[in-house]
Amino acid sequence: MTWFGFGFDGFGQMRPAGVSGQASCNVNTPVLISDVCGSECGVRVRASWSSRADVHRARCGSHVCVSGFVSGSSEEDCGAVLPESEGCTDALISERYLTLSFTDRVECWEIQHPQNKLVWKREQDNTGHAVALPLVSGGYIMPKPPFFRPLCSKLCAVSLALGSEHAVLLTSDGTVYSWGSGSHGQLGHGALTSQEEPQVVEALWGVPIRAVSAGNWHSASVSRNTEQPINEDEKKEADVFISIQAFPALVDVPNVSEISSISCGSRHTAAVTGTGDLYTWGWGHYGQLGHGTENSTDEPTLVDYFPSHHMCVKDVICGLWNTFVSAVPKEQPPS
After folding, report:
1. Quick one: 240 exposed, middle or buried, by C-beta within 10 A (0-12, 13-18, 19+)?
2. How many angstroms separate the CA atoms of 115 and 131, rounded?
3. CA atoms within 13 A on the CB side of 174
4. What tens digit of pLDDT does each residue of 90-99 get?
5. Which 8-state DSSP code applies to residue 333?
6. How many CB atoms lie within 10 A of CB 326?
7. pLDDT, average across residues 192-201
8. DSSP string spanning 183-225?
9. How far apart are CA 260 and CA 222, in angstroms?
10. DSSP class of residue 256?
11. What are the φ and ψ backbone dihedral angles of 204, each rounded to 5 degrees?
């Protein structure tokens, strides 16, 4: 599996293979990220505005590499392996902190040069089924203090997505809850008010949801029935105009019957189809849509790079102003 990146690269988060420098911090077509290729059992990419964290998983163990900006360093960090991460199962990165999940604990490290600093640690119950960060046993982790926030166990959370000021939670029965800032309709409750506690998104009541994501001012989910992404957000028509949409609305992806995964950036969205194509839409000022321009679009648009290179997209992770994609060569039909 190979990883590609496009969008904002002002701190060297992508470092295309064979390219020593770039005239612009904008990358508007996918470029190969050389330092996350070839891991024995796979790589999971996480992104913040200025940095990228790669969770390398192999038979002999796992670790995290960080690329991009590191506090206190005068230079960009090029894929530095963090010894503190040896054996971790998952990671999240923010502008200042790196969260590491292990089978028996979760740790938050302040990322700084020349030495990282452990600022918080919590023992973790590993008797239950594993969940992905930011979910942990008994609650979830925030990217700033206080790091741990409790969650009611009755919610039966299986997935949690954190936006800049709001959260979207998915339960085991496919129900969606949201809370936090609702100033742009990102909670999907039909109003622009905030919610202190998790509240069910009633407009999705009875529609089983299987994936959720959250950006700065918007959220998205994928239903099990329609197999189409549902936006709970502001509608993005141009760089200078924002339309508020406070109720979830079905997004029409042309000629697509199934969405396998979805991810939200600051003001853009990316979705992978069941056939391995990538569609993006929203704000494109830094090239984060991957269409070869820096234009924005309301309409989900196919990223031509991958089918034109006979590649099948497997996953997508959006940073705030960029997008990271894993892909493999398409299987050729027998001759």
Report:
1. exposed
2. 29
3. 11
4. 999 999 999 9
5. P
6. 22
7. 96
8. TTSTT-SSSS--EEEEEE-GGGTTS-EEEEEE-SS-EEEEETT
9. 8
10. -
11. -105, 5
